[in-house]
Design brief:
Length: 225
Amino acid sequence: MSGYFVTGTDTEVGKSLVATALVHAFAENGGLIGVMKPVAAGAIETAEGLRNGDAIALQNAASISLPYELINPYLYNDSIAPHIAANQSGRTIELAQLVDAYLQVSDRADRVVVEGAGGWLLPIDDELTLADFVVALQLPVVVVVGLRLGCLNHALLTIESIQQRGLTVAGWVANSLMPQMEVEQQNIDTLVQRISAPLLGRVPFNPDHTLESVAACLDLSLLPV
């Protein structure tokens, strides 16, 4: 079994779209692909109960059937920082439960794609961040870089923090967030020069992207085996 943790340089950088497209691409290549969204804040009412939209998208893209509670062990109603939502609800996030859920998913899958929440150092309680979950499992990390002003600093800080924890940056994805960004290509070139991990793909701006169109932008052969 192998897995990847997908993080972003910030919120709203296309992390969910890229993570789900990555699941789709792996599934198209065959094998049993599991998914996980350990922590989510922002719930919608469905016939099955409260669910998170990003977690549902992952669940639908996976090639194996998994209980929602394994995919998304912690879900909070409001779209606020999860550790704050946890404190308000009285249901604190337990790192051991997150790890156990991942291990249960991985037992059923050949590969697992885990989507983070927010950015890399999202707090999950008064001391830990979601990065501690990744460290506990030693998962390689895929970084989604949202191309906008400030992305160079955000990307390099994220990469540095991942590497300082002894983790592998498996690759990164450049995601265009606007129809036209000034010197966008120069920003990408700067990151290619400074990040040793491979650029897995460049996702052009398109408000009508599908999983297939984003998956087509990703080169899975560049990921470490």
